[in-house]
Amino acid sequence: MRTPVFTGSCPALATPFDQNGNINYDAFGKLIDAQIAAGVDAVCVCGTTGESATMSIREHIAAVEFCVKRVDHRVKVIAGTGSNDTSAAVYLSQHAQDSGADACLLVTPYYNKTTQEGLYAHFMAIAEHTELPIVLYNVPGRTGLDIAPETIDRLAESGRFVALKESSYDLPRVMEKISAMRGRLTLYSGNDDMIYPLLALGAEGVISVLANVAPAYVSGMTGAYFSGKTEKALTMQTECLPLVRALFSEVSPIPCKYAMELLGLCGGELRLPLIGAGENTRRKLREALVQMGILIA
Asked: How far is CA 55 from CA 70, 79, 88, 169, in A?
């Protein structure tokens, strides 16, 4: 079995913006510090939750550099460097390596998508241009493209890939992928309502949206599981489901940004085409946060 990049909880960090639409580095630094103080095991910068799709290349590399420097080796840093443009993904991955990130996260190509053969060629082309450990990111609900078990087997055979972040709900399909990994890749949950089920299937942790607003809770859940307190972990998974559902009641990170605003973690600004959460979502989030004791009524 390959040594995991991390074991436990890794927040998929939201990116705070100011009212002019620029990255708010003061808020971003405080968010990173708060996550580490809450006991997370790694942080993921410039992922989906970080609104990387609307960042310029210059902003993207600046955000990764800032995160690596702010973390200062306290936990591992995973940099989202994926793109539907292979050459862009190569550039971002090379920069993440130069910045001192510990691994890169490569989402499957979106919109133009590709075949499984094209997917293999895409990932291998990136792997040839970076020495960083590579975490594959499968999120078919976002990209319309699923990494097939056979493709995972081929990629694992190369020795250049270390993990799979799986964001899907087809457990039989996930089990087929685990079988294809044959211990050569680490599995991470990419869904906050699937943490316990994937841990039970052998996952080493979660790359989490929920951790932006409840980092100690998510760390506590994974910590309980790995310390043998599986019933406690299952109870915690069940208890957080209303909040998780609220966080995904609109396109993420719309609800997450509002929840963070409620908690004073950032101003809640989003970049178009994302807009602010609707009133029903806001109500659900307030109720769920109060119910979990994260927000005082």
From this structure: 20, 14, 13, 29
